Amino acid sequence: METVIFKVKNNSLEKEDLDNICEIIKSSGVVAFPTETVYGLGANALDVEAVKGIFKAKGRPSDNPLIVHISNLEMLDELVEEVGDAAKKLMDAFWPGPITFILKKKKEVSETVTAGLQTIAIRFPSDKIARDIIEYCGKPIAAPSANLSGKPSPTNGEHVIRDLTGRVEAIVVGEDAVIGLESTVVDLTGKYPMILRPGGISKEELEKVIGQVQIDKALNSEYSEDNKPKSPGMKYTHYAPKAEARLATGTREEQVIKIKELLNDLRSSGHSVGVLTVDENVEKYACDNIISLGSINNMDEIASNLFKALREFDDTSVEYILCESFENVGIGLAIMNRLKKACGYRKF
Ligand code: TXA
Ligand code: MG
Fold it and tell me: Residue-wise pLDDT tens for the chain (348 aa)?
C-alpha cells in the first residue's frame, strides 16, 4: 500500500490536506497523526472495517481494546451510557489533555473497538492537529499508539514513518509529542477511580480533584495468571528495545556504582553495552553508547525523551542497556512503569 505523508506547517494543516485526510477516514482508511502524548493511528471508531484496519496495520492482538478520541463533549453521547459526577469533575479538570477515562459503552459501539468489553476508553486530546482532524472529520477516532505492536510508542513523525510506511494509508507529520508518554488510563466504572495505566496526569494531580484514587496493583510486577492487570494492554511486554535492558536499583549514588561495576564486567567479557542516564551523571561512565534523558531536576524532560532514547539504542550494536531508575512520584510513576517493561522487569 502507498502511504501518503501530510506535513504540518505552522502548526496547521491546509484545507486541501484536511479534505484528503477525511476522505481516507470516510473510506475506512487508517491515518497516523500527532497528539500531545504520542503519535496515534486513527480510524473511524464507528466503522468496524476501519477499526479492523488499525489492528492489522499495527499487528495488534485483537483482545487489546482501543482508545476512542473525541474533539467535543457532544461526541460522548453516541459512545457512552452515562457520565457520572466523578467523570464530569475529572473531565472538567483535565480535558482536553493526556488522560483517558473508562466508562460504560453504548451498546451500538462495536465490540471490535472495545475487544469484547462492555466498557470504552475515551480521550479528548489537547493537541491542535489531533483536534482539527477529529473535528473536521466529525467522527470519533479510535487510535492506539502508532507503533508496531511491542515497540516503544512513537514520539515523532520519523518513528511512525519507520514503523508504518506501506502499512497505512497516510501519516500526518507534525511536531514532536510534548509529553512523550501515553495518557493516564483511569477506570471510572468501579466504586473508586482506579489508574489502570500511569501517564501524563499523575495520581497526585487526580487526587487533588477527586480525593482517593487507587492504582491497579498488578502494575507493580510482571504479568502472571494470578496477577492480571485490569487493562488488557498492560499485560503485553512493551517498549522492548532490541538489546537486553536492565534497571539499576538503590539511591542514585548506589545506582552509579552498580552500573559502573556491571559495565566493566560485561565489557571485559566482550559485550557491547549502553547506558541510559541523566545529565548529572553522563561524565561518570566510561562508555561509548551513553544516552542522557535530561536533567534529574526536570522529570517532564526525562519523560519526553524516554521512548526516543529506547529507539536510538536500536540503531546501535549494543547488546545490553543499563538504565538508571527514578522515584515513583508524579510523572515518575509512568516513567518507571515504561522502564520496568522495557527492562522485562530485570533489576540489579
Ligand atoms: O496517549 C495515549 O493514550 C495514546 C494516544 C494515541 O492517544 N494512545 C494509546 O493507545 O496509548 P494504546 O492503544 O497504545 O493503549 C491503550 C491502553 C491499552 O493498555 C488498552 O488495553 C487500554 O488502554 N484500554 C482501552 N480500552 C480499555 C477498556 N475498555 N478497559 C480497560 N483498558 C482499556
Ligand atoms: Mg500502545
Answer: 999 999 999 999 999 999 999 999 999 999 999 999 999 999 999 999 999 999 999 999 999 999 999 999 999 999 999 999 999 999 999 999 999 999 999 999 999 999 999 999 999 999 999 999 999 999 999 999 999 988 899 999 999 999 999 999 999 999 999 999 999 999 999 999 999 999 989 999 999 999 999 999 888 777 777 778 888 888 776 788 899 999 999 999 999 999 999 999 999 999 999 999 999 999 999 988 999 999 999 999 999 999 999 999 999 999 999 999 999 999 999 999 999 999 999 999
The pairing of beta strand 99-104 with beta strand 289-292? unpaired
Identity at 91, one-letter amino acid code: M
C-alpha cell belonging to residue 221: 510486577
Q: Judge if the beta carbon of residue 233 lies within 6 A of ligand 1.
A: yes
Alpha carbon distance 127, 177 (integer Å)? 9
Question: Ligand 1: does its nearest atom lie under 6 Å from the Cβ of 113?
Answer: no
Cα–Cα distance measured from residue 184 to residue 78, given in angstroms and rounded to the nearest whole number: 23
Distance 54 CA to ligand 2 centre (A): 12
Q: Is 100 in the pocket of ligand 1 (CB under 6 A)?
A: yes
Mention every residue, 6+ apart, whose C-beta is less than 8 A from residue 16. none
Which residue among 30, 55, 95, 100 is best mutated to probe the pocket of ligand 1, counting the most ligand atoms within 8 A of its Cβ?
A: 100
Q: Which three cell numbers, joined as nine digits, stand for 202?
A: 499523575
For ligand 1, whether the C-beta of 277 sits within 6 Å is no
Length of the chain measured in residues: 348
For ligand 1, is residue 37 a contact (CB within 6 Å)? yes
pTM above 0.90, yes or no: yes
What distance in angstroms lies between residue 72's CA and the mean position of ligand 2's atoms? 23
Q: Where are the alpha helices (DSSP H) in 119-246?
A: 128-137, 157-164, 203-210
Strand arrangement of the beta sheet that strand 320-323 belongs to? 244-247, 320-323, 273-277, 289-292
CA–centroid distance, 226 to ligand 2, in Å, is: 23
